Amino acid sequence: MKITDVEVIVLRHPLSRPFGFSQWWFEARTCCLVRVATDAGLVGWGECYGPPEPIKAVIDAVYAPLILRGADPFDNEVLWERMYNRMRDYGQKGVAVAAIAGVDIALWDLKGKAVGLPVCKLLGGVFRDRVQAYATGMYFTETDDLPAALAAEAAGYVAQGFRAVKLKVGLGLAADRANVRAVRAATGDGVTLMADANHAYDPKEAIRLGRMLEEHGVYWFEEPVPPEDIAGYIEVKAALDLAVAGGESEYTRWGFRELLGRRAVDIVQPDTCGAGGLTECKRIMALASAHGIQYTPHVWGSAVGLAASLHLAATVPDNPPSLHPTPLLFEFDRTENLFREQLALTPIVQRDGVIAVPSGPGLGIEIDQRVVERYRVL
Ligand code: MG
């Protein structure tokens, strides 16, 4: 099988209502898809995490013409190294790696379709064929009473069957306190609650916030400090009893070597569509295992990224294994995104807070071409 064409497709839809987190506001959802065609007539799909235009430029100008056209998708590890090495001097993190990730996911989709097996089987097998999902939502919105709005949203997720939910913090300690208190009151103590600051704080502020989160029984505190500040992570982790999570802004085995080797987090969250794709995330997973750190993917994107993340999550070993291991909590973004809801002909859904890993060949989803055509901007 040979690659005949690599196409980067950018989709965009405006949001019916903007929402914000500690860094900026979203007005639209975008989606950067990679479509790899072959001489066997098979097509593989991948997705990249990050701003689509520069990612597309890297694939269009470098990876597709210099590395990928004419290559065999089954050489995905070789192609990974060649793509990385081609941009190594200029792009060891960020968009150049996210571009590799999207290609890599498409190659795994192709391999699975070629042999008629789901990607999770090819990745080494399935520890779980369904995952316990948590609802990611509770972003900031323009409203007179944000705590009440967040509480209502949280109660809605619990009513849908979620047993775990995550809210945004990072609005300043006083506002965070009011929001966390309202959300905890709405969920009750039986629901697992997580908080995500998207690196809005310095270590001192993060420790103060973390103590408040502990009072409300928060399970993990995500991205308390900027991703480059590994010493800050270690300070926060040492001062707090709750779990510290992070890693969605980190890339490749080399980036995670620092985060994991220095035990800067309790739970590591590489983004499959950003950190380097399924190939690289399996390596990062091995590093996490070697350092006794829990692994769960960061998930933010369309049905393609969601499916890839589910296949990967199926292959994460319990860490540590036991009769009653800590369950892997899988991120299920609940914010407005019709590419998550509509891009796959059969949408990926939760039932009672549980999502089944797709079981068809490759990623196990079929792309709805009408959605691609309707929302395509590049
Ligand atoms: Mg996050």
> Could you say what the CATH architecture of the largest domain is?
Alpha-Beta Barrel
CATH homologous superfamily descriptor of the largest domain: Enolase-like C-terminal domain
Terminus-to-terminus distance? 28 Å
Strand content: 15-25%
H and E order? EEEHHHHEHEHEHEHEHEHEHEHEH
CATH class of the largest domain: Alpha Beta
* Strand element count: 12
Q: How many helices does DSSP assign?
A: 13
Question: Portion of residues in helices?
Answer: 40-55%
Bound molecules: magnesium ion
Q: What's the overall geometry? A: globular
Comma- or semicolon-separated keywords:
TIM Barrel; 378 residues; 20% strand; Enolase-like, domain 1; three-stranded antiparallel sheet; alpha/beta; binds magnesium ion; 12 strands; nine-stranded mixed sheet
Task: Explain the overall architecture.
The protein is of the alpha/beta class and 378 residues long. It has two domains: 3-116 and 368-375, Enolase-like, N-terminal domain (Enolase-like, domain 1), CATH 3.30.390; 121-356, Enolase-like C-terminal domain (TIM Barrel), CATH 3.20.20. It is built from 13 helices and twelve strands. Strands 4, 5, 6, 7, 8, 9, 10, 11 and 12 form a nine-stranded mixed sheet that branches. Strands 1-2-3 form a three-stranded antiparallel sheet. Helix 7 links the parallel strand 6 (192-196) and strand 7 (220-222). Helix 1 crosses helix 3 (95-115).
Topology:
Blueprint: E1 3-20, E2 25-38, E3 43-48, H1 52-68, H2 76-87, H3 95-115, H4 119-122, E4 130-136, H5 146-159, E5 164-168, H6 173-187, E6 192-196, H7 203-215, E7 220-222, H8 230-239, E8 243-246, H9 252-261, E9 267-268, H10 277-290, E10 294-295, H11 303-314, E11 329-333, H12 338-342, E12 354-356, H13 369-375
Parallel strand pairs: 4-5, 4-11, 5-6, 6-7, 7-8, 8-9, 9-10
Antiparallel strand pairs: 1-2, 2-3, 4-12
The protein binds magnesium ion.
